[in-house]
Amino acid sequence: MALLLAFGIALFILIISYVYFKRQLCQKTNGLPGPKPQILFGNLINSGILTGKKSFHEVMHQYQQEYGDKFVFWFGTYPILVFCSLEHAKAIFADRHTFEQSPLFLPNFELFCPHSIVTFSGSKWKRHARVMMPMFKRAKVIQHLDVIAECADRFIDQCLIADQVHTNLVRQCQTVTMNVIGFIAFDYDLGAEMNSKTKVMFEDFISVVVNVMFFSSLPQWVAKLYLKLNWKYQKTNRFLRELMENIVEQEQNNQDKAGEQERPKNLISSLVSSLNEQANDEQVSSGLTRAEMFDEVLTALVAGFETTATGLAWAIFFLSKNPHVQKRMKDELYQNDLLITDDVQSLPTLTKEKIDALVYCEFVIKEVLRLAPIASVTTRIALQDTVVDNTPVRRGQTVLIGMNNINTDARYWHHDDPKRFIPERYLHEDKDHHPSALLAFGGGHRACIGQDLAWLELKVVIIRLMQRGVTFEDTPENTGGYEERLTCFPKKMAIRVRFDRAR
Ligand code: HEM
What we know:
By secondary structure, the protein is α+β, with helices and mostly antiparallel strands. The chain folds into two domains: 1-29; 31-499, CATH 1.10.630.10. The chain is built from 17 helices and twelve strands. It has helices spanning 2-29, 56-67, 86-94, 122-132, 138-141, 145-159, 169-186, 197-214, 220-229, 231-258, 267-273, 290-321, 323-335, 352-357, 359-371, 403-407, 451-467; strands at 70-75, 78-83, 99-101, 165-166, 377-382, 386-388, 391-393, 398-402, 470-473, 480-484, 488-492, 495-499. The strands form four sheets. The protein has a five-stranded mixed sheet. Strands 4-12-9 form a three-stranded antiparallel sheet. α6 (145-159) packs antiparallel against α7, α12 (290-321) crosses α15 and α12 packs across α17. It is globular, with a radius of gyration of 24 Å. It starts with a helix and ends with a strand. The model has no long low-confidence stretch (mean pLDDT 89). Protoporphyrin IX containing FE (HEM) binds next to α12 and α17.
């Protein structure tokens, strides 16, 4: 009898829980369709993301085909409302009072950098943005053109070997971008040769960040415990904090020597001159505290290192598949009196005017940023109840914008197949494409603050490669594919490097 009663109670609890969770689920998904979630892992396993079978953007494309422009994707235990049309992106990015950067953009990043611009919103974000943003504007970064060209020369001289097949280009590209961000933002030589300790430490740091991002569906104490017990993380964290101390100390010495306050010339001088231990958001007080400054140095290094390197790797991959594009870029350089030679001494200097005149080269970078799924999505959190395209979004819910879906959508891209790499499209039907149809850097008030630097860096490095007569040749093993880390880079690159004879 007692057994029967216990069984009845258990059955009753089971039915009530089922009804409750079903109702919760429906409420959370706002009536949108989507793949069935699994306990704890949501759609991370059944989509193939966690098992490495598919990259995030491939999954977003597949679900858009199956469910349309709006669907629900379960990121672990979090249901995310996914929006994939240009109109959705415009509405979400434009409404800065309703949509803020969501913690799911870089889940658990506050464990690494609790005082980073990425993790803040409201007045705190504004205080940090006032220090950070001006230093990454085109007018500032263009002053460092020669530094970027020198870093590209280092790359060509140290990494590229004539007639050899290169299988390690992603890592080699990272050496370029690490050098650039070191010099431009921090006036510091990170000495990032291929296996330098700095670079290895950064890679280890990023791999821990990525692992912890996947813990985001579990309680945060699990991630904290993992970090505490992870000796690799403890070691990299110590190393990177010491590196930042050195960078800051070098800048403080420079400013002491210079005496009279000059206008900040780069990020580190802006950060150091903004030091204000009293900085806070309650009173009108500007500047950053020392702890905040350290976290912003680390943020700029992390954000500026892998993203642009991945963009560069994709650029090289696309060029290797399109020899006619390389030829056309070189023709354009030649027509603009930018001789092609491997003799660095006789290379004409790259100036702002010359860079701006290279329109076809600009189209090439634009096409790379359109197609490469470097950061293929971004997220926002709703600060109040709202409606997007007739779908109610409740306060606290996360929305995801499928940027790569929009970048390759035939409704907005009319020249040929939008999934193909064709820089010429900007001379034809896609000449006047909608500005928001190309979303490599997100949009609205939380768009990427480093986008001017990334554009310039990619353009100058690619131009320099062409100027030095480098040709990237395809091989049968150069099969591409996707490898997802903090960014998504080409999985298999095997590219033969040739040097042209001087023209
Ligand atoms: C090709 C290279 C790059 C790509 C594809 C890229 C992409 C992105 C994207 C998609 C976002 C989120 C934007 C949004 O949610 O609307 C972002 C944010 C950010 N990026 Fe980049 N980025 C690149 C290079 C850089 C560089 C060179 C820096 C400079 C150090 C940088 C610093 C940042 C920072 C600090 C944020 C956070 C801004 C905020 O939360 O307000 N990025 N980036």
